[in-house]
């Protein structure tokens, strides 16, 4: 008899070294089945064997499971707020502002921050942008920093001209090396890894939506434990923290929370 989804998930957890129990399992099952259909894989036995023995399928599984959708200035009104309110306050009170984009996907998010800071006239020695993701293939894309139009729809013509170079076939836009140099990328599994501390702004956008309630709770605690008091936590547009005061957070605007510290 073929193995069940639960048995598949437990074996996949070991092989992939990812805590699949932290994710909404009905979604993991749906994503697994849709990939199986695409590769004409009949059952979970065959699927686990391919994950074990076929590197290409394993990468495809990881790729399919981790949704990498991202774009520059995603939900622009939040970046307006960042520029007009959060950054001025942070740079007024800190010698150096430390920012972490977690997870960063294809780099659109941390590079958006770098562009905003450049436009604000802030010198790179005054900030640090660290960006991490679980998926090493998307990190290669982020480091390459060549984007198609769909990632750039919120970038104004002025900024597009200033920071991107269109390829000769007009299909991609390469980001300027000056902006690329402002972001440091690293592979990191947010569920298993230990976090570095001392952050003034943490962005964790469009990630909690994939997690169970317990895992979300655990991660908010982990993130706030490394945020400096007075620092900010920036979530995705559809993500909320219920009872933010429980974590020492105060909601200040749409997806922004300020960390006041835990008494
Ligand atoms: C939808 S993207 C969000 C990207 C960006 N923050 C944004 O809002 O545009 C979600 C990202 O989460 C990453 N991811 C999924 N599980 C992860 C984990 N356990 N640790 C780190 N990154 C993870 C995926 O690889 C994917 O790039």
Automatic annotation (TrEMBL):
Any GO BP: methylation
Stated name of the protein: Chemotaxis protein methyltransferase CheR
PANTHER family in the cross-refs: CHEMOTAXIS PROTEIN METHYLTRANSFERASE
PROSITE patterns for the chain: CHER
Residues annotated as domain CheR-type methyltransferase: 1-263
Presence of the UniProt keyword Transport in the record: no
SUPFAM superfamilies: Chemotaxis receptor methyltransferase CheR, N-terminal domain, S-adenosyl-L-methionine-dependent methyltransferases
Keywords: Methyltransferase, S-adenosyl-L-methionine, Transferase
Recorded GO MF terms: S-adenosylmethionine-dependent methyltransferase activity
Native source species: Halanaerobium kushneri
């Amino acid at each position: 008899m073929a193995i069940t989804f639960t048995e598949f998930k437990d074996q996949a957890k070991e092989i992939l070294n990812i805590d699949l129990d932290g994710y909404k399992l009905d979604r993991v099952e749906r994503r697994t089945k849709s990939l199986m259909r695409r590769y004409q894989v009949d059952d979970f036995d065959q699927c686990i064997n391919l994950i074990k023995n076929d590197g290409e399928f394993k990468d495809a599984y990881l790729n399919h499971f981790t949704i990498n959708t991202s774009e520059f200035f995603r939900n622009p009104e939040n970046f307006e707020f960042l520029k007009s309110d959060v950054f001025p306050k942070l740079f007024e009170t800190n010698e150096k502002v430390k920012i972490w984009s977690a997870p960063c996907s294809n780099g659109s998010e941390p590079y958006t921050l770098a562009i905003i800071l450049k436009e604000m006239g802030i010198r790179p020695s005054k900030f640090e942008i660290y960006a991490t993701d679980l998926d090493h293939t998307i990190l290669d894309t982020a480091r390459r920093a060549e984007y198609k139009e769909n990632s750039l729809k919120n970038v104004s013509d002025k900024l597009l001209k200033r920071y991107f170079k269109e390829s000769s076939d007009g299909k991609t836009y390469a980001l300027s090396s000056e902006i690329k140099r402002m972001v440091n990328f690293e592979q990191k599994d947010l569920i298993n890894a230990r976090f570095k501390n001392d952050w003034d702004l943490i962005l964790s956008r469009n990630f909690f939506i994939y997690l169970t309630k317990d895992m979300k709770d655990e991660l908010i605690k982990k993130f706030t434990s490394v945020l400096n008091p007075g620092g900010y936590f920036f979530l995705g547009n559809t993500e909320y923290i219920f009872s933010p005061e429980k974590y020492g957070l105060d909601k200040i605007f749409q997806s922004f929370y300020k960390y006041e510290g835990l008494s």
